[in-house]
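Dock zinc ion; give full complex structure.
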Amino acid sequence: MSGTVGQVIHCKAAVAWEAGKPLVIEQVEVAPPQAMEVRLKILYTSLCHTDVYFWEAKGQHPLFPRIYGHEAGGIVESVGEGVTDLKPGDHVLPIFTGECKECAHCKSEESNMCDLLRINTDRGVMLSDGKSRFSIKGQPIYHFLGTSTFSEYTVAHVGCVTKINPLAPLDKVCVISCGISTGLGAMVNVAKPPKGSTVAVFGLGAVGLAAAEGARIAGASRIIGVDLNPSRFEGAKKFGVTEFVNPKDHKKPVQEVIAEMTNGGVDRSVECTGNVDAMISAFECVHDGWGVAVLVGVPHKDAVFKTHPINLLNERTLKGTFFGNYKPRSDIPSVVEKYMNKELEVEKFITHQVPFSEINKAFDYMLRGEGLRCIISMEE
Ligand code: NAD
Ligand code: ZN
């Protein structure tokens, strides 16, 4: 790989030219990494609903042409000036939110909202010089979430790249770089259900099922899965979901249905849909006195969360989290180790696999609500 160090790399990338239009595989130029940046060879990437939201750009600021993708596994090709933590050949997961290790958030035990590198969905350029590292015949192509993994090579800030065990299979652990860690962490790090408690999970996609997996690991006794898509229910049993509620099957609000099922409300709930009504239901279905609700889904930019303040006064707690409160560089290697020691099963999240040339199929599966994660293999 050393032949490419310091050179522009010409490779394939899936470019989104317009909102909602199929991606086009193009030959792109990828500039060398600048100070505190690394250039990665992506081997496997997968599709998360956040990519789809920003590609559809219905409720989000449109920014095109852009290279999406943020759930991936790869190998460091070269490093820019000042990078000491990573070297060519390291196995890594790029992460959509970063850890500079120097700011007040990175130094706080409670936060993963790094001042420098926290998730920024509007930025399409690199931090150091405000420019893109991708171009097509000189025309810049925007980055997404600082990762842009739908490309054979990409450039990321070193603080958004986690070095992992080189023995971990990248075609499996790539899903740990976003969805699985987000759901798992939202449950075990933020909701923290006590052993024997009753938990509700709204949205049974990969993120919600990872939250259910976290509840099972924490020893919850009842895990109530809520989804509008009944085809989600059968598969969810493998993730420890014990009961199902489809809001469409009931005339009354789903929070009332859950309160009746649980003698007043669940102990913990985690929302993984991105729908603001589901967020409100997820909050209002927790038990007064001790219930905790955690929001994870990314809402429409104009969505407003409304609830009666009495619901909070009655000692319900509302929280939200990005990336399950994990610090990308400090904590994610240990989540990969949980997979290596067989505490965490990631295979059951992987339902489809396509070569890079068929990346648009992964979008079709997600838009049809089919399956959980589709792995896109860069080396066909
Ligand atoms: P997904 O599309 O695979 O799953 C979402 C599920 O929610 C679907 O099964 C859908 O039927 C269900 N759903 C939608 N509206 C609903 C409603 N009103 N009530 C009940 N169920 C409903 O998506 P995913 O990849 O699992 O991601 C889930 C959410 O998490 C998305 O909003 C995504 O953007 C967000 N996300 C957040 C973070 C974070 O750090 N906060 C990270 C990754 C993903
Ligand atoms: Zn920081």
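Observed: Residues 43 and 120 are 24 Å apart (CA to CA).
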